Amino acid sequence: VSGDGRLSRRRMEQAGDALEEVLSKALSQRSLTLGVYEAAKLLNVDPDNVVLCLLAAEEEEAGDAALQIHFTLLRAFCCENDINILRVSNPARLAQLLLPAAGPDPPADLHCVLVTNPQASQWKDPALSQLMCFCRESRYLDQWVPVINLPER
Q1: Which burial class, exposed, middle or buried, applies to 56 when counting CB atoms under 10 A from its CB (0-12, 13-18, 19+)?
Q2: Ribosomal protein eL8/eL30/eS12/Gadd45 domain spans which residues (predicted)?
Q3: pLDDT tens digit string along 134-153?
């Protein structure tokens, strides 16, 4: 944490790398839920298995009132259920990571991505633990939805 109360660039970069690792593992374990509506359905029936919620929108979508309402509701639900939540600043990179595995019919909506925890062993995942720490540090600084940048490859 820097002197001005923000997380250092290095911490942000480490969190970005950790997020990429968590997403690739979750993809291989089929423990991702993609899309605002699918996420809302899962959060409604099984919030205890959700370990991370990602919100992603392009800058030009900032004026999309419906999407912003969904984001507000998802944030509130995650806070209420102690689910860590991050905002991805580069949705195009998120799509690059997730869509190759989506097959011939990629989901149109990557505005919300949930990572679920199919086995308790995943909690021992160092990348996931690192992200949890990043979220906790951010909350201490009153950044309830920290913004994270996925590294370009």
Answers
A1: buried
A2: 17-98
A3: 999 998 888 888 888 888 87
Ranges of the chain whose pLDDT falls below 70: 1-7, 100-108, 118-123
- Residue 147: name the closest of 74, 54, 75 by CA: 54
Q: Are 90 and 19 in contact (CB under 8 A)?
A: no
What is the CATH code for 3-148?
3.30.1330.30
Nearest to 22 by CA among 96, 131, 113, 148: 131
Closest-CA residue to 110 (of 45, 5, 32): 32
DSSP strands (E only) in 19-137 = 32-34, 50-56, 84-88, 112-116
Q: Residue ranges per domain, the chain? A: 3-148
